[in-house]
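Handoff note, outgoing to incoming analyst
You'll be picking up this chain. Sequence as last confirmed:
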Amino acid sequence: MILVVLGTQDKRFERLLKVVEDAIDQGWIKEEVMVQAGCTTYDCNKMNIVDYVDMTTFEQWMKDCRLLITHGGVGTIMSALRSKKPVIACARLAKYGEHHNDHQCEIIETFYEKGYLIPLRDGESLKEALSSAENFVVGDVESNNHKMIELLMNYLEL
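Most recent structure output, in case you need it:
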């Protein structure tokens, strides 16, 4: 099963679902596709699309999926990496009205540079990303939470 996650914010992302639907039509995706769409409305009978799921269901889907296709949200990406799932990530872009700015490009690029995910950049084909995901090995993820905690502690001590 492939899991597609668009997050829970009030941002729409039809573009990514259209790319996934095209991959199904082309025969590049032949397995079941589950979608957590958030506020994105998309009519397609080729994918199982729900708005939101509870955390128990989300964790089960993450456990059961072979691959995650997602937006550039850190929380979703980290969930997949902790579950040792390959990630294909596509940034929401301001030029399409999908976000206020292009910070998700920076997030995805940083994870990519560390070897944690496969980026799907604007205009690129999902076919190549799916092919790369077949042999993608998810390494151990290093969290930087301790740096944030240290910064907060230093600020509070002032």
